[in-house]
Structures are given as C-alpha cells and as structure tokens.
C-alpha cells in the first residue's frame, strides 16, 4: 500500500511538472508570435502603419517612400528626449531607410521632426506589466492612457478578446491610476470587438463595456465607420439603437448611456474624415459634418450625442495640435456661440472643459473663466463637468474633501448644487465595480449645511440609478446614518427618456 501511494504521488508530481512545463512553453510560443522586426513607411503624408507592436529587443525599419526627407524621432518635439537614441539626428533622404532597436519595453510615440503633425507609436512588449511601468515613469497627464495599450494589445494577440477584457477588468479593479486614464484604453477593446463582429456578427455582452465613460463603444463605432466607410452610417445607427435593448446592462439608464456613447463615437469618426482642405478652420470643419449627424435620427438626443462627438474630437485635435488646430486663449468658446441653439451646450462642455484641461487650470483660476459663460444653464453644466473631471483625476492634487470645500464656498446656490452634482458623479466613477455606492455616498458628510447635504444624498442616489436597480439602491440607503436614510429612500428623481 505504501509503495502504491508513493507511486501515485510521483505520478501526480510528474503530471503537475508536465503541465507547468507545457504552460511555460505555451507562454514562450505566444511571446514569439509578436514580431521581432517591423517596417514603417513614410509616404509623404503620414506613416504606415501608424502603430506597430514588437518584442523587446526588436527592430523597426523606417523607410522613406516619398520625394521629400523624413526624420522619425522620439517624442517630445523638438528635444526627442523621451527615448534616448530614437533619433537619426538628420533627415532620411528619399529611397533610404533608418533602423532602431528598442531595448526598453514601453509605449514610444514618435513624430516626423520636419513635419511634427505626423505621428506614430511603437508598442514594445516585455514581461506583462513591464511596458506599462516604463511608460508611466516617462509620461504624465494626458499622455498616460497609452501606457496600458501594449499589455492589452499583447493579450489580444496571445489569447483573444475575452482574455484582454479580463485583464482590463483586473486593471480597473486594482489601479486608481488606470481608472483615471482608461477611456482611451477602452477604444482598443472596442476596435478589437468590431473586428470579431465583422467576422461572425457576435456582439460582446460584458457589463464592463460601460466602464470608463463607455469608451468601448467609441472605439467600436469609429472602427466600423473608418473601415466600412461613411456610407454605412445607417449600419452604425442601427447598432447604436440596438444597445438600448441589450441584456448586458443592469439598468435602462446604463443601456441608454451606451447607446448615446455609440452616437458620440459616430461624431468622432465623422470629424476624423473631414477633407484636408478644411483643416485649420474649426467653424467650417464642424459645419461640414453637422448634416450627417442630423441625418441619423429625428430624435434630438441622438443628434446631440453625435455632435458632442464632433466637438470632443475638435477639442482633442486642439489639444494635440492636429489638423492645424489649436486653442485660442482669447475667447476659446467663440466657436460655440456660432452653433445652433440645441448644440451650444454640448459644444461648450467639450471645448470649455478641454481648454481648462489643456492648460491644467486649477479650480481657483478655472472658475473665473467658467463665470464668463453668459448662459446660466450652460455655465452650470460646464462647472459640473469640470468638477467631475477634477474628482476623477486625483493626480492633480484635488481630493473629494477639498473639492467639497470649494463647492461650499461658491456664492450662488445654483452653482453650489452644480458643483455637488459634478463631484458626486466624478467620485462614483472611482468606486470598485459593484461597490460604487461606497465612494458615491462618502462625499456627502463633507457638506455640513443641511440643504446641501440633502441635495448631495439625492444626487448620489440618482447617480447610482445609472448602475443599480431600485432594490439595490434601497439596500445602499439603509447603510446610511438614520437622519440620511429618509432622504435617500425617496423616489428617484431621474427617469430616462428612451
């Protein structure tokens, strides 16, 4: 019996070793599916491809297939100091090439030094997490969303979309820094989901597609329109509408938000398709795509969502100095005054908040700018949106308590409420999935004034209605102090108009 038990033990150990070695071999095989060499071509009007994925230690060859010199070099312009050595120190003449070996894992943006509006990106993959850590150490602020892209792209290539989503969900649950920067990262998964949808028609139904401001749907619909052409706007419209009836979302409100985010993505795609002859003229650029947004639906909410995508893409272009665009420091919202009345709010939100974020304006200097907005409803919405962003971007130094103090000190009651609304919405996005109520309700005790505290609890409850059903919200209300429970348990004030 002893010998038999020992034999069985050896058999189990041998089988375990076999599995471990097999898995290690599988990982090595997977890693080497990522190329060790890639070629990027300059054609006179951009780099092709604009983004490549290679192994750490791999080499990228830059080929000049144009009639003018090109100078591919590491960001930032003009110092080229983000990745030492990634700089040929001179232009590459037509017909010639230049190669660089990437010994550092990371996400390395580059540009043409001679025409810096033309950009590209090299994703260099090492061990899982290595490229992210390297990128975060070398970047800050608005450039950080790119840092997780290499790991997600690697997981997509190795194990597919579902595994990449699992990795994303782990990042979202475990990293506040990731959560603050994940909207653009979700575009990567949206693009990959479209590629699968194109092949077999399957629609991803994971609840986490709603995370990060529904960036997944922006990426999905932008890819659909860019690959199939703008003549497929009807297909995009049908897909966006279908989300209203998806069972992936816990509430009708979250389904509505996903649908609106999808229409927002259409606006992005329309803006990025604008003819180059209009570049540098933001008014004409916007007007050129407005009819296409309006052709999507007779419902104002869908038209407005599409136009918000146009304005958001415009703000992004101004931030990055793309399409010969830039923010003007004198009257940055002038373009919004020229929009149709129904679009002025969306325009002011995207351009106004984009302007403040671009210049990293602290609250003390942001509010005087916000007060220059003449239309009070728009002013209040811009204020709420700005505070929402401040609550989510903790690296700027603001805390919920400090922002609550700023809200309390505002002189006008409507401004204080708008500030509270933005703060509650912002902190709700920082909560752990399934436990968002903890962060959402946590800000209300910072308001000692009873009317403002009551308003905070009501807004927290209504914000949670975007995520949870009524029974769960009532259960959350029961965890509050007795004096707050009666306020929280009142009927929700927000009813979605689907």
Core attributes:
21 helices; 498 residues; disordered C terminus; globular; Immunoglobulin-like; single chain; alpha/beta; 8 strands; 4-stranded mixed β-sheet
The residue fraction in helices comes out at 55-70%
From the helix content, strand content and strand pairing, which structural class follows?
alpha/beta
CATH superfamily of the domain at 30-129: Cupredoxins -  blue copper proteins
Unreliable stretches, pLDDT < 50, 5 or more residues? 20-32, 493-498
Q: Kindly state the mean pLDDT as a whole number?
A: 84
- Termini separation comes to 71 Å
CATH architecture of the domain at 30-129: Sandwich
Strand content: 5-15%
The geometry reads as globular
CATH-assigned fold name of the domain at 30-129:
Immunoglobulin-like
Rg, Cα atoms, Å: 25 Å
Major sheet details: 4 strands, mixed
The total count of helices amounts to 21
Q: What is the H/E order?
A: HEEEEEEEEHHHHHHHHHHHHHHHHHHHH
Q: Report the CATH C-level class of the domain at 30-129.
A: Mainly Beta
Strand order of the largest sheet: 2-1-4-6
Q: Total number of β-strand segments?
A: 8
Quaternary state reads single chain
Describe it for me?
The protein has 498 residues and is α/β, with parallel strands linked by helices. It has a domain at 30-129: Sandwich (Immunoglobulin-like), CATH 2.60.40.420. Helices cover 56% and strands 9% of the residues. The protein contains 21 helices and eight strands. It has helices at 2-31, 130-138, 149-159, 161-174, 176-180, 182-200, 211-228, 233-242, 252-271, 282-294, 300-320, 334-337, 344-358, 363-370, 376-392, 400-409, 413-428, 436-442, 450-464, 470-477, 482-488; strands spanning 37-42, 47-48, 51-55, 59-64, 72-74, 97-101, 106-112, 115-125. A hairpin with a 2-residue loop joins strand 7 and strand 8. Helix 3 runs antiparallel to helix 4 and helix 13 (344-358) crosses helix 15. It starts with a helix and ends in a 10-residue tail after the last helix. Mean pLDDT is 84; it is low at 20-32 and 493-498.
